[in-house]
Design brief:
The protein is of the alpha+beta class. The chain has one domain: 2-Layer Sandwich (Muramoyl-pentapeptide Carboxypeptidase, domain 2). Helix content is 35%, strand content 12%.
């Protein structure tokens, strides 16, 4: 069974409780890593916007606890978008189920389908590592 590295677990502890609950369930079935950009300073966010990695200074990564998480299937293959979509879909399914059971209170969206319409080709900005509370 996959498990988090100490670094990923440390980053997870900085996130909203609902993110932690879903992540702990997802790691039981899919190996993934939590990327170091989960918690950001204003300066880091400004740099991400400047580099085109983010489009907003109103990022949920700036909140404490973080209301966003950046994750990647492990081992990471940046060219395999299918694995990122699979991981995000599994996350969203677990979150929906947990919310229906009253285990969490949040809804989530994925940066590969910002408008949550099930289509990824209509997005003008794709951030396949990003999942956030809405």
């Amino acid at each position: 069974m996959p498990k988090f590295s100490e670094q990923s677990f440390s980053l997870l502890r900085q996130c909203h409780r609902d993110i932690q609950v879903v992540a702990m369930a997802v790691i039981e079935k899919i190996d993934f890593t939590i990327l170091s950009s989960t918690i950001r300073t204003k300066e880091q966010q400004e740099q991400y916007v400047k580099e085109g990695k983010s489009k907003t200074m109103n990022s949920k990564h700036l909140l404490v606890p973080s209301q966003a998480i950046d994750i990647a299937p492990y081992p990471i293959d940046w060219n395999d978008r299918t694995r990122f979509a699979y991981l995000a879909g599994y996350w969203l399914g677990v979150a929906e189920r947990f919310k229906s059971l009253g285990l969490i209170t949040s809804n989530f969206r994925w940066g590969g389908d910002w408008n949550r319409n099930g289509e990824t080709k209509d997005e003008t900005f794709s951030d396949v590592v990003h999942i956030e509370i809405i």
